[in-house]
Design goal:
about 170 residues, alpha+beta, four-stranded antiparallel sheet
Length: about 170
């Protein structure tokens, strides 16, 4: 009798769980229409200035021979191409005419690895986004005591509107 009740409870629990999981898979398979984004007008540049010399993270998982990048910059989830080389303390890295800026809201993600020797210090990255040489965003991202310095900077593209009013 105990064996039968145990078997029945097991069948109810596993069957209920599988029924729940199959219902969940069909509920999350909703098709979404792609968002049509128009490219913003004008030239957008990014300037990065660090308070540390950017180095490879010695603790990062390396899946290929190229190693992990010491500096990562992504615009709306797409990685931006950076010039190879090192970024020293106080040096300005300028990325000109960044592709992928859309009308409306945009997000710039920056991640950099400070040197292991400076593990006890707070470090920062100054991020400036410029539109046609005019500053849109000037924000500093901080990392505490040797942690990776990372964060997102949100900005809106500039909408150029024509004045249709007669004076």
């Amino acid at each position: 009798m105990r064996f039968t009740l145990t078997l029945l409870a097991w069948i109810v629990m596993v069957g209920g769980l599988s029924l729940y999981m199959s219902g969940r898979e069909t509920a999350t398979a909703i098709e979404r229409a792609p968002v049509s984004a128009t490219t913003a007008v004008g030239s957008y540049d990014v300037e990065l200035t660090t308070t540390f010399s950017v180095e490879q993270d010695p603790f990062a998982l390396q899946l290929d021979d190229s190693g992990s990048d010491a500096l990562t910059v992504r615009l709306n989830g797409t990685a931006l191409a950076l010039t190879s080389g090192t970024l020293s303390r106080g040096q300005v890295l300028r990325i000109e005419a960044i592709p992928g800026v859309v009308d409306g809201s945009n997000e710039l993600y920056v991640e950099a690895s400070p040197p292991v020797e400076e593990a006890g210090l707070d470090q920062g990255i100054r991020v400036r986004v410029l539109h046609d040489k005019q500053i849109l965003v000037d924000q500093t991202l901080w990392g505490e005591q040797g942690a990776l310095v990372s964060g997102s900077v949100a900005f809106s593209s500039v909408f150029e509107e024509e004045d249709d009013h007669d004076h």
